[in-house]
Write a structure and sequence with these properties.
Length: 336
């Protein structure tokens, strides 16, 4: 078959299909029209598709374009027929009985609400916001924070690496080092941001989540200042009557390290109980020195917390995954 013959057959089929649909009675059902159209075109379309392979290579592009145009033209003719039949019968595609969609009431995400409240409390305590990159170097994420070279957190099963020396930060602690390299003490900053870890996505863990860290560095700062500041934060956030307690804990970048627990009501009928809210401690001298400060002259303290877990305890959320669902019905509960 030559290209000219192929194009002639394709054009003839298009004309026959339009003529068939134009000649049908006004009361012909759509399914009946489709049946007659299929009987007319199916065998001829299949023959044209098979003939494509027999054409010379230089003609196949033009023939293929004609074949696709033919199929599209037949479908458009059928759509016109369907619209004409619906119009003649007085059928409307608008369903007046369908209930209207309700107005959605926008709201900030519960984790955002928690972060904003925490930032406002620390702003009143003299802290400013500091930000840093989410794609970090291994040195800023681990080395400058006193992690030993063989620390398990540096393994591939815990950390998402982007390259040989680049990774998605596992905490916002690198912001501490970058801040100390940029500004001279006294420094009081709060560093909220997204962090990434190779955690399974389950009821209590997520591979990407918000973290919020604080840092205070100056001459003569002690653990007493840390406890007083964090206890004041807890009283403002949870209520003046809530008790706090500190217990020993370990983090490579602080010495000594501690965790702070707060009495929290989880709304499960069991009343107040101790819940760990954050980790904290005095900034390790090696971290100060890696940031270019004299550890004999300056001291400091730092803390870190997960706003998502705090939001879960505050709003009685049992599964962390609902915070990532973008379900408007869930978010509407927090609209103000």
């Amino acid at each position: 078959m030559q290209l000219s013959e192929y194009l002639a057959q394709a054009n003839a089929l298009a004309q026959d299909a339009r003529a068939l649909l134009d000649g049908l009675e006004p009361d012909t059902r759509l399914d009946a029209a489709k049946g007659q159209l299929n009987a007319l075109k199916d065998d001829r379309l299949a023959a044209l598709q098979g003939a494509l392979r027999a054409l010379p290579a230089e003609d196949r592009r033009a023939a293929g374009t004609a074949f696709n145009t033919l199929k599209q033209g037949i479908q458009e003719a059928l759509d016109v027929f369907a619209a004409r039949q619906a119009s003649a019968a007085g059928v409307s595609t608008f369903d007046a009985t369908m209930p209207a969609r309700g107005m959605w009431r926008g709201s900030l995400h519960p984790v955002t609400l928690v972060i904003d409240e925490i930032c406002e409390i620390f702003r009143e305590l003299g802290f400013t916001i500091a930000l840093g990159p989410e794609a970090e170097t291994e040195w800023y994420n681990f080395g400058a924070l006193n992690f030993p070279p063989d620390h398990p957190a540096m393994e591939l099963h815990d950390t998402l690496y982007l390259g040989k020396d680049t990774l998605l930060r596992t905490h916002t602690s690198p912001v501490q080092v970058r801040t100390l390299q940029t500004y001279k003490p006294p420094v009081r900053v709060l560093a909220p941001g997204q962090v990434y870890r190779r955690d399974f996505f389950d009821a209590t863990h997520a591979p990407a989540f918000m973290q919020l860290e604080g840092l205070a560095v100056d001459e003569g700062i002690s653990f007493v200042d840390l406890k007083a500041t964090l206890a004041e934060f807890a009283r403002r956030f949870y209520g003046a009557s809530r008790r706090v307690r500190f217990g020993p804990s370990y983090f490579p970048f602080v010495e000594p390290g501690a965790q702070m627990d707060v009495e929290v009501d989880l709304n499960d009928g069991k009343g107040l109980r101790w819940v760990e809210i954050l980790g904290c401690g005095m900034v390790h001298p090696h971290v100060l020195e890696d940031a270019g400060l004299d550890s004999e002259k300056f001291t400091g303290w730092a803390f870190g917390m997960g706003p998502a877990r705090i939001a879960m305890s505050r709003y009685d959320i049992s599964d962390i995954r609902v915070l990532y669902d973008s379900d408007v019905r869930f978010l509407e509960q927090f609209a103000r």
